[in-house]
């Protein structure tokens, strides 16, 4: 491929008026290579391609050396350098992603316990800055009080960042009994599931393709999209974080919710805590 690019550059220079000798010297191309007609590697290496395809048909997950040794056992005497060159040109050296098989998910009803800090819901959202740079948000919601607990903003939010957000909430208000979420790679990772198991948190996964089973956080996402993400143009991640914190405070402290009797989530949480305290006396 390097030779073909150099040949193209040299021929462009010759077409512009340079001599073949000078064009080859400038592009570090041999004159013999300049005059050689390009040959389609698929035709030149058709035997190697067929041999590789025959091996991969029987063993689709075989790597290069497995393929090469199987070819040798079948009597193919190709040089390993040639086989590897064809192997790479066919794109077989690229990592092949395999779909992760999820365990069966059971539909769980959206029953709400009238107790703050008992059931939380997680979900991710996407948007972009004014310059086009993409970012994500991790939204965590208390299903009982509809209170937004955190809006984590960054270009990447892997499982470690989810745990960091939960650890911060653990220091501020404790941890829930349940977490409701979808089957995203960050949320089904061993790192997160082990952490939740260590903290005795039940994980409630929704069924794939059924976002309505996580209806409370999806309803919140709709408000967050309309009133915040679609309402402003952001120049930096710091600006998104600062404005999201202000919006979250207003959502929790001032914005009324019909499902809560037209009072803000923070006030509803204080009512629940007060009633629970009086019942415990």
From TrEMBL:
- Which Pfam family is one of this chain's hits? rve_3
Query: NCBIfam families in the record, alphabetically?
Result: transpos_IS3
Molecular function terms from GO: nucleic acid binding
Report the transmembrane regions from the record.
Answer: none
Q: Which GO terms describe its biological process?
A: DNA integration
In terms of InterPro entries, this protein maps to: Integrase_cat-core, RNaseH-like_sf, RNaseH_sf, Transpos_IS3
Record-given protein name: Integrase
Q: Which organism is it from?
A: Photobacterium galatheae
Which Gene3D superfamilies does the record match to this protein?
Answer: Ribonuclease H-like superfamily/Ribonuclease H (3.30.420.10)
Q: Which residues form the Integrase catalytic domain?
A: 105-272
């Amino acid at each position: 491929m390097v030779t073909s690019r150099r040949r193209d550059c040299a021929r462009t220079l010759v077409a512009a008026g340079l001599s073949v000798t000078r064009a080859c010297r400038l592009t570090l191309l041999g004159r013999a290579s300049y005059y050689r007609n390009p040959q389609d590697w698929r035709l030149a290496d058709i035997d190697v391609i067929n041999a590789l395809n025959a091996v991969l048909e029987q063993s689709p997950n075989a790597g290069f050396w497995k393929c090469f040794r199987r070819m040798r056992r079948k009597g193919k005497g190709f040089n390993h350098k040639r086989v590897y060159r064809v192997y790479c040109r066919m794109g077989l050296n690229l990592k092949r992603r395999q779909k992760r098989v999820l365990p069966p998910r059971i539909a769980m009803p959206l029953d709400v316990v009238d107790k703050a800090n008992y059931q939380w819901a997680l979900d991710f959202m996407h948007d972009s800055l004014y310059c086009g740079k993409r970012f994500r948000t991790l939204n965590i919601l208390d299903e009982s009080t509809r209170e937004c607990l955190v809006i984590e903003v960054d270009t990447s939010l892997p499982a470690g960042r989810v745990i960091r957000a939960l650890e911060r909430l653990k220091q501020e208000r404790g941890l829930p009994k349940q977490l409701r979420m979808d089957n995203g790679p960050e949320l089904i990772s061993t790192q997160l599931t082990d952490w939740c198991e260590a903290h005795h948190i039940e994980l409630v996964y929704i069924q794939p393709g059924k976002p309505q089973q996580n209806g409370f956080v999806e309803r919140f996402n709709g408000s967050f999209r309309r009133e915040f993400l679609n309402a402003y143009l952001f120049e930096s991640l710091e600006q998104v974080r600062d404005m999201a914190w202000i919006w979250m405070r207003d959502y929790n402290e001032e914005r009324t919710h019909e499902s809560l009797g037209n009072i803000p989530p923070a006030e509803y949480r204080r009512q629940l805590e007060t009633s629970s305290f009086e019942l415990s006396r």
